[in-house]
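Re: weekly structure request thread

Next one in the queue (254 aa):
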Amino acid sequence: MKEQWRLLKTDFSTAFTNMALDKAVLVANSEGKVSPTVRFYGWKPSAISIGYFQSLEEEVNLDNCRKLGVDYVRRITGGGAVFHEEELTYSIIIPEVHPQIPKNLLKSYGKICGAVMKGLNNLGIESKYVPINDIITGGKKISGNAQTRKAKTILQHGTVLIDVDVDKMFSVLKVPNQKIKDKLIADVKQRVTSIKHVLEKEILFEDVAEEMKRGFEEEFNVELIEGTLTEEEKELTKKFDKECFSARNWNHRR
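Done, posted below.
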C-alpha cells in the first residue's frame, strides 16, 4: 500500500497568508502532528516575494507596488525577488529524515523538482532540471524553486508559470537605470516562458494543479489525499500572518 500524504489546495490568498501558511505547516510537521504535506496555491493580489537575505528597499519599487496594488513579503527561504501573478505555486513540507528525501541539498532539490517536471510532462511539456533551483523547457525558465530546513524539516516551494507579464514584473522591481532595465526586460523575455506560451493555449489553474498532483504522486510513489488545515495550523497561520509576514519590522528588516 502506498504511503499517504496530505494535499492542501488553499486557493488564492494574500502574500502574507501564503507565507504564514507554509510556516504553520512546517511547525506542525516538525512536531509530528501532520503527515508530509504538498500544497498548491495562488496569489491574490499579485505580489513580490523577496528572499530571506535580501533588502526590500533595494529590490522592490514600493511606490509602484502601492499604485498597482501589488503585495510584497519576505520569505523564510533564500533566493531572489520573485513576481507572483499568473502561476501555480507549490510547497512541500516533509521531515529531513524521510526516506524519500536525499540528505544532500542538491539532490533533494532535484528530487522535488522531479515531481514538478513530471507534472509538466503530464501537461505535454518536456523540461529539464538546472541546478540549483531552476526548471527549464526549450532553454527557457518555467519554474524557480527555493528551500529551507528548520527544526529538522524541509520546506521547499516554487513557482510554475502559467503566464508571465515581464513588463509588469519590472515595473515593481528596482533596476539601477532605464538602459539596464530595457536590456534586462528584453533578456528576460528571451529566457523565461510559461505553460500558456509553450502550449499556445489558455489553461486553467485547476488543470495545472491536477497534473502537478499526479506528478508528485508519480515521483514519490505516494497517494496525495486532499485534506484541510488543523485548527492549530489555522491559529498559527493567523499568528504568523499578523506578527511576522505582514509586519513592517519583518519585511523591512534588512
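The two ends are 48 Å apart (CA to CA). The chain has ten helices and eleven strands.
Next request, please.
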